[in-house]
Amino acid sequence: MEFQSSYSTKIGLEDIVHAQMHLKDVITRTPLQYNRVLSERYGCNVYLKREDLQIVRSFKIRGAYHLMRSLPPERLAAGVVCASAGNHAQGVAYSCQALGVQGKIYMPSTTPRQKVNQVNFFGGAFVDVILTGDTFDDAYAEAVAECERSGMAFIHPFDDPKIIAGNGTVGQELMEAAETVPDYVLASVGGGGLVAGIASYVKTVSPQTKVIGVEPEGAPSLRVSLDAGEVTPLEHIDKFVDGAAVKRIGDLTFSICRELLDDVRTIPEGKICTTLLDLYNENAIVAEPAGALPIAALDMLRDEIAGKTVVCVISGGNNDVDRMQEIKERSLIYEGLKHYFMLSFPQRAGALREFLDDVLGPSDDITRFEYTKKHNKDNGPALVGIELKQREDYAALIGRMQKKGFQFVELNKDPVLFNILI
């Protein structure tokens, strides 16, 4: 699907080249690596642009430093303010220390301590971290209010020409490093700053290269806006892919993406989790959920990319190890390997033993079992989690429960009950 627009591209090649001059002594020129595992799996040549190896473990430093470096000296001297739940905060913090500028960084009070510590590490004495509110929107409102009070410059996470030009250096680097011109370049979409910058460079030097944006199914701010023909805020989002969970695409990024992107794909969060685990197990790559989005899209594009050269941008690797259990759980559910039931046992003696002996398959495993009533456990309902060895075992499991007269509700198919009970 191709998008047509009356907008003209607002970020020129010279803007990106200028950004590269600002950044060349500050950032890591991250590698473009051929990936044999993915190439063989999809029958094409897959290369990974490793922004997870950037100095702050994400691409965000590119736009943040370029914007700050571009401010007039007197404006920069007054200090800067930003709002972020993670990666942008680290990029701004590093830039503050590198430029000797004071900064105030507003983050939600729910931000994991590990991320707050990283911001303090990169910024040192040059930054003050202010934890406020429960969401990014709360932190954003406080940051904007601080700018109005103090006159400090606001460093937007994505919707600024300098931010986009700085991010465009990712596109410049991958095109310069590629041995052959890529047929496809895939990049994640949150606020749109990364893919807008990459597309601005790639489509100028190689119009035939298809640039595809990839966003999470639970926060499709670009997809919804493109379908509506205008920027359309989302009422609710799934915050799991925190680096790309944005309610509203930027105005400038939207106009660039609508003109330059060849397609936008949305990926289920469970599929992203499977991709994260595969990247780690098969390639020893620790990506964050937003960083895995482009690779997760390869399955959807399998027929289209066969025999082609494909570049996937891993936008970051700031993944919290405390999230790994949730990532594994979401992956298993998405792959059809883990199922939760609210199960009522028949009113007869030995029903639980009968369930274990006659309903569970030889390779099925109970991973959770909780009676929902403190009394009358023998006949009361129970919450049961079952993990299968292969998804094909599911139909047989359901058939045996029905045959034996067990009454049950499949919680995987009831989002409301699932969120309450699981």
What report would you give on this structure?
The chain is globular, with a radius of gyration of 24 Å. Helix 5 (87-99) packs parallel to helix 6 (113-123) and helix 8 packs across helix 9. The protein is of the alpha/beta class and 422 residues long. The longest helix is centred in the middle third of the chain and has 17 residues, at 161-177. It has helices at 13-23, 36-42, 60-70, 73-77, 87-99, 113-123, 136-150, 161-177, 193-205, 221-228, 251-260, 269-283, 289-296, 302-305, 324-334, 351-359, 393-403, 415-421; strands spanning 32-34, 45-50, 80-83, 103-107, 127-131, 153-154, 184-188, 210-216, 263-267, 309-314, 338-344, 365-371, 382-387, 407-410. A six-stranded mixed beta sheet has the order 1-2-10-7-8-9, with helices on both faces. A four-stranded parallel beta sheet has the order 5-4-3-6, with helices on both faces. The chain is built from 18 helices and 14 strands.
Short précis:
This protein is of the alpha/beta class. Helix content is 44%, strand content 17%.
Indicate the overall shape. globular
Helix tally? 18
What does the average pLDDT come to?
92
In whole angstroms, how far apart are the ends? Answer: 38 Å
Structural class: alpha/beta
The stretches of 5 or more residues where confidence is low (pLDDT under 50) are 1-8
The residue fraction in helices comes out at 40-55%
How much beta, percentage-wise?
Answer: 15-25%
What is the makeup of the main sheet? Answer: 6 strands, mixed
How many beta strands in the DSSP annotation? Answer: 14
Evaluate the radius of gyration.
Answer: 24 Å
**Strand order, biggest sheet?**
1-2-10-7-8-9
